[in-house]
Every structure is written in structure tokens, then in C-alpha cells.
Amino acid sequence: MVITDVDRTLQDFDRDGYTIFRNVLDRDLIADASDHVSWLQARHPDRHGEDLGTELVPRDPFWVRLVSDERLLDIAELFVGPDIALFASHYISKPPFSGKPVLWHQDGAYWPLEPMRVVTLWLAVDEATTENGCLRVIPGSHREDLHELRQRDDVDNVLGSESAVAVDESKAVDLVLSPGDVEVHHPNILHASNANTSPKRRCGLTIRYIPTSTRITSEEQPFVSALLLRGDPGVNVYQPFPTYVPSKHRPFAGA
């Protein structure tokens, strides 16, 4: 993929708090990612489809291969610069006719990062539509400060909480994506997704990239999913890359 019209892309991101890159990853790699989700769910039957991530990442060679793909890093570099680390990554896979909603929130309210310089790449593994619970954003809300969080136990939802602020959903934009598309968003933007009411699975991979000058302030060092992916290591300690073991890991091209 060749990134074109960089200035307009960055202007869109600065204005709206998000932008979309189409057809970033090829079909074969996306098919591998889709199979990877099924493999993970078979291997971890105790985990919901929305809970595949964090400590699983640095032990999984395919996952590390995916988040370190040069095409994704080239996009991340536009927003965080040339020295790039992985902070965290999750698959959020909503099964047909189910899958929990994600209530309105700002990612940065949950994260131990200082300063809050981080960008999320949301990679569409499946088609994401209004019917199957695509990502929804409030354009321009990234200019707001980080809001307090409040618990929400009255509705079954992925995070168990939401931003403690009234959200005008008439301003929401549904981000319809095809497999291989990448949506990029700011840590302060208000976003959410509905439950999947369709017969099709909706799976996306969230990838949180930080410049290596951003400090992970968690007491866990190295942080469970922190990986150095490009450039100077900066201020953090990182996990080692995993070694592929055929009897232990899912096979993939280039393993």
C-alpha cells in the first residue's frame, strides 16, 4: 500500500479525530487473521470473543507478525513518529445475533500512559456494518478533555463502564469498513458500538501504537503487551519477540 495525500489525511484526523485507510492489508493476510481468531477461541474457550488480547499478544508469533506489518507501521508513523512501540492489542469479535455493545467512552481514560500520546488502528478482519455493530464515533469530540468513568452494571457491555458525559447520538457517524480497511482514531474521541443483530460475525483488531517517548506507567515492567516495533527503544522496557514453535503455535506464511 502506498499512502497518498498525507496532508489531507492528517487534516481530516486533526478536524474529526479519526480517519480511514482503505485496502491496507491483502486478502490472504486478512484470511489468516480471521482463522487466527477462530484458533484463539478454540484454544481459550473461557474467553469471550471480545476478550482476546493483552497477555496473549507477546506469546503469539502470528499476532506479533500482524501488528508489526510494515504497512500498519507506516500508517502509525504518520501519527506518532518513527520510533514506535506496541502498547496493547485486542480482537473484538462479536458473534452473529449477539456480541455485547461497547458503550460511549474515550480510550485514554483507561490507559496508564504519560503523556497520552497514542493512536489506535482498528483493522477490519470482517466486514463492519451498521447491522453487525460497526464502530461509531462523535466527530470532533477528541478536542474534549478525558472524562471521568462511571460503572454500568444495568446493561451487559464489554467494558463495564462508560464516559460520564451526555452524548448526542444524532452526531454519531457509523464507520462501515471492508476487510483489510484500517480506521485510525485519537485517544480522546468518544466512540462506541452496538450489539451485533446480524447473521454475520463482526471482528476487528485494535492495535494501540505509542511513540517510544510515551511512558507506560503501569507497575508491570515490561508491560504485558509492550513490544518495540520500530526505531529507538526510548523510555520503556519491552517483551521479547516470541519464537515460533510448530507444536505450540498456529502455522502461518513466513512462520
TrEMBL record:
One of its GO terms (molecular function) is 2-oxoglutarate-dependent dioxygenase activity. The keyword Oxidoreductase applies. It comes from the Bacteria. Keywords: Dioxygenase, Oxidoreductase. The keyword Amino-acid biosynthesis does not apply. This is Phytanoyl-CoA dioxygenase family protein. InterPro entries: Phytyl_CoA_dOase-like. It comes from Nonomuraea mesophila.
